[in-house]
Every structure is written in C-alpha cells, then in structure tokens.
Backbone:
C-alpha cells in the first residue's frame, strides 16, 4: 500500500516545490507543477531504492515547513533592508557544509530548501562514499564528516560557522520529519557540537579583544 502511494507522493512534493519556485499559488502554477512532476516521474529512472518506504513524522513535517517559511520571511526582510539602505552589507562566499544526509531524498530536500531561501543557493552537492571519507583506513569516520557536502553560495557569508550552523539546524528538522531515529540523533548531536564550537570561537574572540 505504501509503495503504491510512493509515486503520487513524489508528484505531490514536486508540485509543491514548483509552486514555491513561482512564488504564487494559482491554478496555472498548480497544473504546471502537476504536468512537470508527471514528466519527471515518467522519464526518471525510479528504481527500487527510489520507491522504498521512507520515514515520515507529520508533526515535525509541519514544524519544518513553518520554520522554512519563517526563514523565507526573515531573508526577504533582510534583502529589502539591504536594497533600501545605501551601505553594502553583503559578503558573498561559497561555503562547504558537511551534513549527515540520511537519504538522497533528505539531502535533496535540504539543498532545495536552501535554494528557495533568498540570499542563499546550493551550487553543488557531493555525495560521499564510505571509502572516500575513511581517510585513515581504519573503518572510522571523522565526527564532522558526513554523508554529503553541500556547497552553499550566500551573500551574507562573513560568518562561515553561523551559515554552517543554520544549515545543520535545517537538516536536523528535515531528519526529524523524514529520517530514522539514528539519523535524527546523529544530526541533532552535530547541531549541539557545532553550537559548542561557535561558543568556543566566540569566547576566544572576546578574550582576544579584552587582552591589552
């Protein structure tokens, strides 16, 4: 039953993304999204991995959507202020952000969500293989190495770690909505650890400023 609903679910999600990209809910955009999603499903090579059941937690999915919409509002306000003020506060950069991923679907969801947010765009996604990231050859993976690396172009990239933390928080919410218990625990641990890293950097900067 769940497998039978997989393709309609993919079409629904692609249609929602299509409407988001146009920025307006209308019959034309909805019908256009249905047509595009139908073409994607028709011509895409959907193998058994693509059609396998995925995790879904409705409550966290709502939280994810609300959080994304809030980020859209904040980003639009910041861009509006930037346009209306004479000073140039931009600092463009491309920042590599390692994430857990969990699945290709979650990686794509996070990457597309970043692109939908004004001021940021995912320019590349590098999906890791285990032998590519096991540098020491001992079967262990570095704590900051993940299932994928997102390369994010942002116009406010002066604080690299802040950008990375925002992406990690977005991934945490995505995995709470569409990930397994293990993936959610790992992603949340990354957020907590990265928050501690940011606090450590902040303390070091304050100490440097206070040192005569």
Residues:
């Amino acid at each position: 039953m769940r497998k039978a609903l997989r393709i309609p679910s993919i079409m629904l999600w692609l249609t929602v993304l299509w409407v988001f990209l146009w920025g307006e809910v209308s019959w034309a955009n909805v019908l256009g999204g249905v047509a595009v999603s139908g073409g994607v499903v028709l011509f895409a090579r959907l193998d058994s991995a693509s059609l396998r059941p995925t995790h879904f937690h409705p409550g966290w999915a709502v939280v994810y959507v609300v959080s994304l919409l809030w980020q859209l509002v904040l980003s639009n306000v910041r861009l509006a202020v930037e346009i209306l003020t004479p000073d140039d506060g931009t600092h463009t950069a491309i920042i590599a952000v390692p994430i857990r991923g969990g699945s290709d679907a979650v990686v794509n969801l996070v990457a597309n969500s970043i692109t939908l947010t004004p001021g940021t765009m995912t320019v590349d996604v590098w999906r890791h293989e285990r032998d590519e990231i096991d540098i020491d050859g001992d079967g262990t993976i570095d704590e900051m190495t993940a299932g994928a690396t997102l390369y994010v172009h942002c116009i406010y990239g002066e604080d690299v770690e802040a950008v990375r933390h925002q992406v990690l928080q977005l991934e945490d919410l995505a995995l709470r909505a569409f990930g397994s218990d293990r993936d959610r625990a790992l992603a949340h641990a990354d957020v907590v650890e990265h928050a501690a890293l940011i606090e450590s950097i902040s303390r070091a900067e304050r100490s440097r400023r206070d040192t005569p």
About this structure: The chain has eight helices and three strands. The radius of gyration is 19 Å. The CA atoms of residues 136 and 142 lie 10 Å apart.
